[in-house]
Amino acid sequence: QVQLVESGGGLVQAGESLRLSCAASGTIFSSATMGWYRQAPGKQRELVATITNGGSTNYADSVKDRFTISRDNAKKTCNLQMNSLKPEDTAVYYCNLRYGSTGYTYYWGQGTQVTVSS
Question: Beta strands 46-51 and 33-39: pairing type?
């Protein structure tokens, strides 16, 4: 059984930074791909960044050079450092764990709100 708990959201002004953290339970963390997604009001959930178990990263174009995803397999945590935040980054941010090879199993956290004021 996997549980994901996000923390670190809040209200900031444009240009400021936030660091989101995701703590995972269970035994598959080190084998899984971790990711952060976000959903703004009235919009579909979208990919923000992913990091494989080997450390390869992928970012949405809108956050490249501003956000950094990282993971600590020993602590079973995945972090998202968000710099130079913009009002359009306002959304609920969700931690995601993807596990499997031929068929994927997905787990989601409950989400954490990030609000960026102009």
Answer: antiparallel
pLDDT of residue 101: 80
Q: Which residue blocks in the chain are alpha helix, DSSP H? A: none
Containing 103, the helix (H) or strand (E) segment is none
| pLDDT score of 20 | 98
pLDDT confidence tier of residue 22, bands split at 50, 70 and 90: very high
Q: How far apart are CA 76 and CA 74, in angstroms?
A: 6
Structural contact between residues 81 and 49, judged by C-beta atoms closer than 8 angstroms: no
The answer to whether the beta carbons of residues 24 and 78 sit under 8 Å apart is yes
pLDDT at position 64 is 97
